[in-house]
Each structure stands twice: as structure tokens, then as C-alpha cells.
Amino acid sequence: MMLNNNPKYYNLFFLLFITCLTYAQNTANGKITDAKTSKEISGVDIFINDSTEPFLKTSVGSFNVQSDSIIYKLKFSKKNYTPETVTITPETANNIFVKLSQEKENTIAEIVIHNEKPKYKNKKENPAYAIMQEVWKRKRNNGLEKFDTYTYKEYEKIQFDANNLDSAFMSKKIFNKLDFIFDYADSTASGKIGLPIFLNESIYENFGENKPGKKIKRLLVAQKTSGFQDNQVITITAKNLYRDINIYDNTLNYFDIGFPSPVGTNGFSTYDYNLTDTISIHGENAYKIRYQPKRKDVLAFQGYLYIDTDNYAVLGATLKSTQKINVNFINSISTELEYDNPDENTFLPKKFITEIELTPFAKKRTSKSIIAKRSVDYSQYEFNKPLDDKAFTRREEEYDAKFVDKDDAYWVQARPDSLSKSEQGVYEMLDKLQQTPKFNRIVKIYETLASGYYNAFKGIDIGPIFSIYGKNEVEGDRIRLGARTYFGQNDPWRVQFYTAYGFKDQQVKYGAEARYMFNRVNRFMIGAGTKRDIEQLGVQLTTDDGIMARTFASSTLFARGENASLSSINKTNIFAAIEPWKNFQVRVDGTLQSIKSANPEKFSLMYYRDGDLRKTLNDSHVTLSLIARPGAKFSQTGVDRYEHGTLAPTIILKYTRGIEGLFNGDFNYNRLQFMFYKPVLIGSWGKTLISFEAGKTFDNVPLGLQNVIPGNQSYSLAQNTFSQLNYYEFVADTYSTLHLEHHFNGKILSFIPLIKKLKLREIAFIRSAYGTLSDASKAINVDGFKYSAPSEQIYFEYGFGIENIGIGNLRIFRVDFNWRGNYLDRPDISTFGIKAGFQVGF
């Protein structure tokens, strides 16, 4: 193409040239990285030309500067880095690549490395203390919080291995016709045999949004399970063992028990630290610091911390429990953590490996045990990319059983590392085992004990087996038999029923309920049921209208004093429930019931209505319940779900409207109730259980519909009841109760010689209740003069308990010692009582 010689084109060309030149010298852009690690750096001050004030401070690793004047020089400055100056020309203004070199810290005058544990007069003489001070000073936060949006991939592998097997064990009669499984066993370092028995692989895609609103989605996209994949108890146990931890937190959550973190700001109160070496980790120089607990009898770890020598970031850590770990069913815990540190303020999880050794009885190293190992790889982080709202929406296909099915080729590509030979053998071995009748019988026994139901034949379970026998004053000896439909753990419908017979009253009782779920996403379901039974009312404030809810009467085999205050209930219920948002349920119940005394000679429920004396109360009511479980985790997607262990709270708000005349209902009334329950970790001092309930009945109702402050005349433990109250001792129109129970996890008893060897754990608790009862509500009842509310002063109880009673790893017994704090002048009260029961937990 020939250039046109017209002068106006020369002028246009010259104008465009000057414009581009000016623009190039007024703008500059590029990237800032660490000269050593090549990682992008944020928080850099940029100075234009010879200015002494920064023009801007970067929030990411790139920059774009635009000024009203010509830019001929840029200066880049950041704390702990050597400043860098770059000359700007039109040719070099774009895609500038700035490398900042870290300055050597002078805050630590001298580092002395010891291979043996040295003794210091005080912690300030310990060079490890100086290093940890820098770590605390620059405490980092999870990098996911700093970006507007983020995505990443997560690969999780959980494996169970039978450990410490030997030839004598392998030759036991129980393995007759099952001995082929030992072909898949491997020798361990101790010379014993390890046999893989369970393997679960999962791949998740994680989506997050911090701005403009907070949204999180963890989508399971693939899962492959060997072994007991049809046994919900095994699978839930595997998932329940693990919690997400942050090494920078002061308290680390294992089994909902608080362990002090070695990187926590109060670490020196629990641990001794010793700088042992400097090593290279993934190209980074790191201090290697050994830490161990000052006292072996506390819940704490030992291991190594790997701290970056330049910026004091935690590159990695190992956490290993002590030999005297006081956790039920657990012989040892070990965790390995790896972190990526993109800048000086944040960290990103890279790889976590946790191994737990479980034994049901003894804590000996040679005991037969199960090794539960979980490894998680985090990869493919992407930040600040636009995310469609659909990414956070629950979809129907996610709940399809086939949604996570992937072929072998997919898994070969998806795994960060290939499976070991023993891991590959798990799939084949368990396929063979499930075709062996003897193995299936063993699994069936385990399932029965764990779930409480016995699978009689396809689709039908008999149980619960632990409710077969009971005893109370009205029925005498009581036999209860029940059954349910059960085709699989994700059943969208279920029918349950039971029948019971009391040998003293010679009456047949029964209950039946059916439920059907239409949608797995929002869990929209309906249900209906009916029952006729003997119940102990007044043992729960925020009650459940469900027909198959647990009754209290048949479980009281032994009680203090005579309990005749049982009621005969004839009840029908229909309900609909939906979860419009995850872990938030809206439920509406319609209930018809008739209530009368099951023992009229000793306990009266008679009341006055329109001047007439009535012995049977007819009630028709509708209840709206809002139930929130933020943070709760569930397995399965069927009509019944199994909850994972978490510290999630339970929040319930209920409104009940009684309707007079509807199906012979006797009373119009309005009731509002609230309940809040939350377990809280208090650092290394244990866990507090907080339970608060409040409510008000706005109309006058008889005793059968009244709010009863829950008493407990049995000798067994019953949650959210008052141990030293008799049944119906306090009745209230308006009430509030607070239960505080703290589990110290052996923190105090571990200081006492001899006692500490028993590994007992202490509990302290206080319970309180306040309420009012109107004269009109008293007057409705024939025996209304007997009833009052704790309105003169707040009623309270206090006491302590000892838990973790048992031998070896089997410590499931608990004893409580309870004192009544006030209202001591009342007849037939108990000022002191002992409660005992089984408490299965870590």
C-alpha cells in the first residue's frame, strides 16, 4: 500500500503518534513477584517518579498505574523486601516484570540449633521462642477469604486397615472359608500383618463467593467406595472421625475435643519448643522446630513445625499424640500438614494426612486395631473469576445415586497419585467377600448392634431391639415389638409401626407412621401416623409431634420415689416439611389427641370446662416449626438422614395454635416456644454444652396442655431435665430454662497422682428455671392447688460428674452427683441425687 502524500494525512499520523507516546508514558502495568519463590506479591507500595508518597498499594500480584503526568520512573517498596526502581519508557511501560528480594530479618540476633532438648532459664532465651513470636506476629488467614470468588478441587481418600494381625489371629475359626482375604495383607514395620478392609475415594469441586454475598458450595462429583458401601454405619463412622483444622487456630478440633495448637498464640503454656535444624522444603529454607507437651497427661501433640526462614510462614507441620492420650477408642493420632503461602498475609491448604488408630478395648501398641487414614489433596485454585449463581444452586441430579459413578479411566486421571498395590486389592477383595455368606452374616450382626434394627428379609427391619423390654408402674412389665421398611439408605419413603403389651394393665398399645419424600433437593416430604400408648408427659418442653418420637415411660426401669404421673395418649398426626435453604427446615403439623390419666387413683388430669368436670382432654392444634442447623453435615439423601458429628447449633422456633371445636377440640390457645442448643470448645479446657429454652402459652389451658418444667425421677441420665425435680413439680404459662454443662476432658484430675492413672474426666454443671403460672390456669384443674411455677426465685441445681469410667479404651460409663439449690421446704423432694448411665463417645 502506498502512502498518500496529502499533508492532512501527515498531520493525522503525527497526532496519533504523539497521542500513543503520551499514553505510553502516562500508564504502566505489570506483575510483581518474589525473586526467590517467583510467587506473586500483594501489598506493594508504588511510587511515581520522585514522589515520597505512594501512588497506590497493590491488592493482588499485578498492577496498572495511570497518571496525569508523564511517568519516567516507578519505585516498588514493601516491608521486609529491598526496594526496586524501574525506569519507564514508551517501549518498556507495558508488561513490566518486577522481582523483589526479601531482606534478611535482624529481629533474631542469633540462632543456635540444638539436637538435644536444652534447658533455658526462661522462654526468652529460647531461640525457638523468638521464631514463634514472629509467626504469631504475622499470623496468617486462609487465603480463600481475601478473594471475591474462588474455586478449587479436592481429592479425599479414606482407608481402614486391620492392624497388628498375626498367624494365631489369622488361624481363628471365624476366618474359616474367609482365609483368602489374607492374600491381600501386607507386612508392617513391626512385623505384624496389616489388612485393608475399606477404601473410599471422593472428588469435590468447591465454589466460594465472598463479595457481594457469602456463598459456599462443596459439590461431590465422584465417589468410589469399596467394602461396606451398603452399610451406612461404617461409612458414617469413617466420615465422622475427621474435622477440618487450621494450624493457626489456638484450638484444634479432633472428635469435637479441643487440642491446643502448637502454632497457637498460647502455645508456650502447653508446649516446649526446640530449634533443631534448618532444612529445605519444596525449595524454601525452613526452621525445623521440635515441640512436645510440658505434661504428658494432657490432651496435646508432639512433633515438628517447619517455619519459612524469610517470612515465618508455616510451610508444614506434623502432629502426633502422646502415648497417654485420653480419648476413648483411640490409641494414637497423627497428622501431616502442607501449606502454600502465596503472600505474606495468607495461606492455602495443600495436603493434609491424618491417621487414627482405633481399638475397642486395650491401649497396648500390640493390640489388634483399625488404622483409619484420611488424605486430602487441594489443587487447581482459581481466584476472582466470575461465578454463575447456578454454581451454588442445589440440583436434582446431585442426589441421584448414579451422579457420582465414574469409570476406571476417570479415576486414573483424577487421582493425584496412583493407588498402592494393597489399595488396589481392596476393591477386588471386598467384591469377593460380599459373595461369601459367612461374611455377610458377620456384617449383619454388626449392623444390627449398631443400628438397633435386624434385617429380617428384603425390605423389612425388626426393631429397635433395645426397646423390646420396659417397665413402669401402670403397665408393669412391658414388651414392645416394631418394624420398618428398609430397602436402602436413600429410601424416599418409609413405613414404621410397633405394638406393645403391658402385663399389669393387660392393654395393647400401638403406633404407626408413614412418610414420603417428593424431592431430594428441598427435602419436601409429607407424613401421617397414629398411636395409642402410655407416656410420661412433662419430661420435655420443646416437644416433637411425630408419632414415632421416643417415649419416656418404658425406659424408666428404676426410679427414686413412686411415679404414678403417667398419661394415656390417643394421637393422630399429619405433617408436611420442606427445606427451602440448606439446613433450614419449615414444618407444619396437624395433631388430634385425647389425653387422660393412665392411673386416675394416684394422678389426676381432671379439669373444668364451662362448669363441667372432664377427665379426658381433647386437643386439636396446628404447629409451625422453623428448625435451623447451620453448619450441620448429613449423609444420605433419603427420608432418613444420618448426621455427622459437628459443633453445629440447633435453633428451633415453634408456634402452636389450638383450635376449639375442630374435631371436638376443647380449647383455643396460642403457644410460642424457642430452643437453642450449642456445643462450644473452650480451648484446652474442654467443651461446654449450652441449652436454652423459653416459651409462653398465651391462654389458660389445663395440665395436660401446660408447660411442665422437666423433672427426672429415674436414676438414669436424661438430657435437658432437672434431676432433683419431681414430675409436674413446676408448671408454667411462661418459662425459661438454661442448662450449662462443661466437660473438662480430665484437665483437672490429670494433676492428681494415682487418680490420673484412671483417666477419669470431670464434668461440672448448673441448671436453672424460671416461670410464672396464672391463678386462672391453676383454677382450671381439679388439683390445681398442687401446682406452681418457679416464680419466687430462679430454681437451680448444680453438681459434678465423673465420665470416662471403664477399662482400657472402653470407657462409656458416667456418674453424676446432683444437688438441689433452693425450694428446699417442699414435701417429698430430694435434695441430693446420683444419676448414672452409658455415654458412648470419644
From TrEMBL:
<keyword id="KW-0732">Signal</keyword>
<dbReference type="Pfam" id="PF18939">
    <property type="entry name" value="DUF5686"/>
</dbReference>
<feature type="signal peptide">
    <location>
        <begin position="1"/>
        <end position="24"/>
    </location>
</feature>
<protein>
    <submittedName>
        <fullName>DUF5686 family protein</fullName>
    </submittedName>
</protein>
<dbReference type="InterPro" id="IPR043741">
    <property type="entry name" value="DUF5686"/>
</dbReference>
